[in-house]
Amino acid sequence: MVGERSLKKENEQLKVSQFHFDAFQPIEKKVYEYAELPGLFESMRVASDGYCEFIHNRKPFRKDVATRLISEEYLPQFWRDRFWGSFHNLLSGCWNFYIMNDVRPFDDFRLIRDLYPEATKHCYSVGLMQPYIMHKILQCQDLNFLDVDWRIHYAHFQFEQMFREDRFRTPDSAHQAIQDLHLGWIAFSPTPVRPRHDVSPATLCRLNQQECMDHLQKYQTNRAKLESITWNLSALHNADFRAHAGMPVIYLSNAIEELYTSRQQFDQLLGKVAASIGPEGRALFAYHAAGTDEIGLYLLTRAPARDSDADQSAGQSQTNYPDYSIETVCRDRYHRANTGQLLEYTTYFEKISVTAAPRDCKSLINKISE
After folding, report:
1. pTM
2. How many CB atoms lie within 10 A of CB 164?
């Protein structure tokens, strides 16, 4: 029946990294409950829109307006790194990647479902559309949004409000609902960048737009099965990975490429995930090459328990993670699609995987059915 859900607002939280807490003036807490999010996001939106006017050369710079968003201590690094498409422009909400350019991530999740049908899955995902597709296919126990860009989380919160109002019941209502999303300062927008853009399926998915919309409709029903939702406003390596007995499944898209994640941060990410599972527990990472359908699945297995584990975990520091190994479940050959020529590359996973000659994922995907 409409309105009867197991997912309660008290099981939804936003968790903020130390960097975001220190850098952004409107952020006053490390953890926000669901009821507090409308006020936070509106404060962030107003302050960010004022700053983005400077970034996009709409108005002359004013420090008093900029520091409504960014703390005075952090403003120099943001302002120095304000060139087109910069990382700090993304952090400030002035250059936002709402559109899903991963080609057919539906197939990634179907493959994971078929390879690990019995595992209780704790789902973590970057991106705007991918988490909803992920839960619809994997039937996650809990869903965790990962992003350094606060506006992506603001979009997730708007979606969540709409799902609570059952606005995705039919194709027509779904298309009407997304038009009410407040999405601003869109990266690579086909129209002039502005504080609020018109939204259509093409705003959310570069390809397979009807399939994207179908998954939003199906998530409307399946979200009731979630036990909790957590927004992680943080870099991947600073996200909160709670301890549990199931299998974490972390959808990375291409966020572990060197442009976004250093080797040290990558190691920290794996260590934190390993620490969230018990001895001999497993976690799965899904990588997706940008703008392509090339993917890789990597399985982390924590080492068996040792006599010293109890003492170690009691005083565990950020750099004192449990031992683990990485194997490649499958991997396609990755190519950069935006260089003018298809240049093959590898990821950090290839440097540490114990699998010498992995099978390709495409052949496995071709064998699965809906």
Report:
1. 0.92
2. 15
